[in-house]
Amino acid sequence: MKLRHFLAATAIALCAGPVAAQNFQLSHNAAAGNPKDVASERLAELVNEKSGGRLNIDVGGAAQFGDDAETITNMRLGTIAFSANSQGSTSAVVPEMALLGLPFLFQNLDQAEAVMDGPVGDKIEAAAEAQGLVVLAWWNNGIREVSNSKGPIATPADLAGMKIRTPPDPMTIDIFTALGASPTPMAFSELYIALQQGVVDGQENPLINIYSSKLHEVQPFISMTAHKYEATPLLASKMIMDTLSPEDQQIIRDAAAEAGTLNRQMVREQTATLKAEMEKAGVTFNEVDPAPFIEATQPVYEKWRGQYPELVDEIVAAAQAAGR
């Protein structure tokens, strides 16, 4: 009797065949060739390899699966699994994440990564998980600069009344309000046409985003303000992650870390070379004295310290320690 049961179970298993592959979507808003895009494709390759083909990720770049804000909503609903999202859009539901973009907090990528990879990053990850989002890894977007169609920006006075596109990010809006500009939140996917048609005068982004999305074609002036840092949080839907086995969750986390190393390396390499490439295309760059910009944005610290006094102080202290 036991033998018959064993043979029947074996026959059923053989008829069932191999376990069906699971398919997921990963959304991001970057153009092809951007470090965010290349790392996302590498993540998909690694997950497929490490799972023996059981886990497949379809990467939808350039907002094919929706813009960053829409993707955050869909991840919390469990309809999109992954996103190489933006710090700004994520902060709409995880406001603690906005603190990584406090004005002039970080002077370089090493300093920013040291803070994100430490206890501060752990606290923000916990806040994200409470909102249904799992931070798989902290990728880089870079240090942000200002481009515009009118002329070099040397002091905050040069921004007075200028319509500057910002992401839908309260921190960036606060920074440009403090600098005297007129911040205009807008999805990144709409930005090129808005600049081309003069709907806005300028925008702010890392050089890698300006170049890969060809914004320099319609923005002849770039001012090296280095006013804030921007992370690329690689996010997973907690609802979907919770359905996976611990082994498959670890495969995804390991792949996220490995692809993140590629992302960080590419951001550094491209940032070092793109200024010269855009100068060849006719872009005028200017350096700025950060002192008046830092002074003008001090009220931003006061505002956010009022909401998150302990975390702001912790982030500032961590940044100072990492900068030594």
From TrEMBL:
Please, which domain of life does this record's source organism belong to? Answer: Bacteria
Tell me where it mainly resides.
periplasm
Record has Glycosyltransferase as a keyword: no
Annotated compartments = Periplasm
Signal peptide bounds: 1-21
Q: Which UniProt keywords apply?
A: Periplasm, Signal
Pfam families named in the record? DctP (PF03480)
* Entry-linked InterPro entries: DctP_fam, TRAP_DctP, TRAP_DctP_sf
Residues folding into a coiled coil are none
Q: Which NCBIfam families match?
A: dctP, TRAP_S1
**Name of the molecule in the record:** TRAP transporter substrate-binding protein
Q: Which organism is it from?
A: Paracoccus angustae
